[in-house]
Design a protein that fits this description.
11 strands; 4-stranded antiparallel sheet; globular
Length: 112
Amino acid sequence: QVNLVESGGGLVQAGGSLRLSCTGQGVTFRFTYDAWYRQPPGQQRELVASIDSGGRTNYADSVKGRFTISRDNAKNLVYLQMNSLKPEDTALYYCAVEDIHWGQGTQVTVSS
């Protein structure tokens, strides 16, 4: 059974940074397609960033140049480094594996 837990969310001022972490039980991230999604208030869930088993990354246009997805294979963690945060980045952020397994989410709130 796969269990994903996100952490690192919080309240930050615009221009600040946060690093989200996703820890997984029952999964080895380096062998899978891993992604971060977000769901802003009243909106649909959207893909933020992904990384495949070969390390290739993909980003939503709205976060390119500001967010970085990465893995720590030794610790079996997936990160989302978020810099230059904007109020429109406010959302519940989810970690996902193979778009099948999902965490419960961590809230990110960016104040102006």
